[in-house]
Request: fold
Amino acid sequence: DAGVTQSPTHLIKTRGQHVTLRCSPISGHKSVSWYQQVLGQGPQFIFQYYEKEERGRGNFPDRFSARQFPNYSSELNVNALLLGDSALYLCASSQWTGYAVQETQYFGPGTRLLVL
Amino acid sequence: AQTVTQSQPEMSVQEAETVTLSCTYDTSESNYYLFWYKQPPSRQMILVIRQEAYKQQNATENRFSVNFQKAAKSFSLKISDSQLGDTAMYFCAFTPQGGSEKLVFGKGTKLTVNP
Reply:
């Protein structure tokens, strides 16, 4: 079975531009989460979407937004890019259903974003 | 606030030996889950092992095992018979039960296995 896929793998943007990152979850997974990993740090939670609804939001500015489509794929959008947005953006999917058990999250390879 | 602390930025071990990576966490939750993830130089984050806080028995996965001390809020990872392929960044992560899937990660420990 295919794992979590992300596109593009690398991206270079300039300050002030916007960017859209895409993620396809593992087949059968309805929950998608986004993380930002700055070089030398652990990932930081940005968003979680389940059944097209936002179920969690991290401490990120409103320049960051996301959505989930009927096929459970997801997009992360970042507007008005800053130099500090340069990072590896990771997508993870799981079989989470909102009930008591926390399912394991499986990560994609990430999108490396460089803002100049 | 929920935090995860990995106090060892870097560690090294000889091939075939055993190494233990430390992790402590802070939470007021009573039910939660703990994970160790491995991130090799290729960057794909891979689950190593998970532990449910309500389970007293320490989780094991082949050469990987944990020492979970709930009262001390400690969750260390032991790697036995280290292999060159174990070279990677190791992240300890925490998530409370219910609500959302937010994982809180530590800053990671860079493990190098030497031949």
About this structure: The mean pLDDT of chain B is 93. Chain B touches chain A at residues 4, 31-33, 35, 37, 42-47, 50, 91, 93, 95, 97-108 (CB under 8 Å).
